[in-house]
Amino acid sequence: LSGDLADLYQEVIIDHGRRPRNFGELEGATGTAEGFNSLCGDQLSVYVKIADGIIADITFQGAGCAISQASASLMTTALKGKMKDEALALFGRIHAMLTEGPNANVHPDEVGKLAVLSGVWEFPMRVKCATLAWHTLRSALEAPGETVSTE
Amino acid sequence: VSARPTALFDPGSSTSVGTGQASGRTDVEAVRAQFPILTVRPYGNPLAYLDSGATSQKPRLVIDAMAQFFSEHNASVRRSVRYLAERATEAREGALATAQGFLNTTDDEEIVFTRGATKGASLVAATYVAGHLGEGNEVPVTEMEHHSKIVPWQMLCERQGAQLRVAPISDADELPLGEMSPHHGGSDMALTVRSEKTVYNRPPYNFEAGTPDLAGAVGLRHETLAAHEHDVLAYGLRSLSALPGLRLIGTAPATAPAKASIVYVVLDGAHPHGIGTILDRHGTLVRAGHHCAQPSLSRFGLAATARASLTCYSTRHDIDARVGGLGTFKEAFH
Q1: Residues B320, B39: contact at Cβ < 8 Å?
Q2: Do A40 and B328 touch (CB under 8 A)?
Q3: How far is CA B93 from the centre of its chain?
Q4: Element (H, E) at B264
Q5: pLDDT higher at A16 or B148
Q6: Is the pLDDT of residue A135 over 90?
Q7: What does the pLDDT read at residue A76?
Q8: Measured between beta carbons, which residues in chain B are less than 8 angstroms from residue A4?
Q9: Where are the beta strands (DSSP E) in A9-126?
Q10: Is the torsion defined by CA of A38, B285, B328, A120 positive or negative?
Q11: How far is CA A109 from the centre of its chain?
Q12: pLDDT category, A125, cuts 50, 70, 90?
């Protein structure tokens, strides 16, 4: 792969897409939400366990493309141990990076490993694949039990 | 309206697609030359358009007929004595004659122009069938339907207490196996409207409320293309089934009766969206996803497939491009 495609399918994304981390239901979850991408039929659930305002544990489960699986997987690894508010702030930065690209002025340091998702911006049809897990997370944190859609 | 454009596929001429299989590739090239969009080069690559099942491309003569309609005749049909409305009405009658020739009908009341097939299916459900359906009745659909052919019947059955019955399809994706009342209120469907009672117009006008896709009707042109599609389909099935790790969904052979020129594939562990994106950047446009046929995909235990749909301008080159793109995909992901 070369050019935009190489930016999209970075090694880390292919790896997380193939072997998603923190995959499965979470016993004792305090919040959960289900997300659908009606465009492609992708579906995933996010489970969070909040203790003292901290995300003590977070998992996800579902079926989708490499981008959506990798985005969810990377999200769970980035958020474990983070404050709920920090998670929501990161949601904002990731969302801006995915939808506005370089115009969002999100510095790579502000998103850590999740910077590998920055190439998705070049593929407007695929942005929703990457944002699905994050919208579902927000719902799990703010309105548990809700079903979200990328539409 | 005007002199009829020359036929896209003249069965008697040497550029016919129907005889093209015997005389070689030049014939399909002559057909392709009539589709301006096929010269577009996505990301600098030649275009292999394999999504005609979702939206078919239009040849120059259809584009010209529609452009001529919009440029010279566009008006509300059958609704005025103005010059343009008369031209639009003539255009509608001309389109009717074309459709009658295609469908081999002679009765003016048998053809209704709608905005599209989805609207047409809803119209039949909400009018003819609604008037005849009640408790104890069943509406048969099949497992292979598009959502637009399931949802209107589901809604109707719910409303009228009837049962929706789903006919199963085989692993090969084969199916082991027609009076209406006005529907959409609007101009031209009624003869007189008073607040207490409306007297309806005669068919088909009572079903063509509002402004139908008249330019679309004017653009109708047709010819038999089955032989060409079949050739490319058979080639596609052969080349794709040779790819390791690839599974064809719907294993009926190209020779099966009523086999559509569509090839659905899934690739070992890979999501069709990745396939769609990578092929796209190489100029090969396929459809990835559930194709608005989720019940059918569940039947095969799938959420999504990558789909190539073929038509008159599809070539073996398009198939080769797809096979090549799938190779690139496999390299990147394995």
Answers
A1: no
A2: no
A3: 23
A4: strand B262-267
A5: A16
A6: yes
A7: 97
A8: 281
A9: 31-37, 42-51, 54-63
A10: negative
A11: 17
A12: confident
DSSP β-ladder status, B163-167 and B138-142: parallel
Chain A and chain B share a number of CB contacts under 8 A equal to 54
Chain A interface residues facing chain B, Cβ-Cβ under 8 Å? 1, 3-5, 8-9, 14, 18, 39-43, 63-67, 69, 123, 125-126, 129
Mean pLDDT for B14-30 is 52
Answer yes or no: are the C-beta atoms of A37 and A128 closer than 8 Å.
yes
How open is the CA angle B113-B114-B115, to the nearest 5 degrees?
Answer: 135
- Chain A positions touching B290 (Cβ under 8 A) are 40-41
Pick among A65, A123, A125, A150 to test the B interface (most B CBs inside 10 A): A65
Dump pLDDT digits (tens) for B196-205: 666 667 777 7
At B275, is the secondary structure helix, strand, or coil?
helix
CA Rg, chain B, in Å?
A: 23
Query: In chain A, what residues touch B270 (CB-CB under 8 Å)?
Result: 66
Task: Determine the angle formed by the axes of helices A66-79 and B272-281, rounding to 10 degrees.
Answer: 110
Percent of chain A with pLDDT over 90: 66
Q: What is the residue whose two structure tokens read 């005389």?
A: B23
Is the pLDDT at B1 greater than 60, yes or no? no
Q: Which of B271, B294, B333 sits opposite A64 (nearest CB)?
A: B271
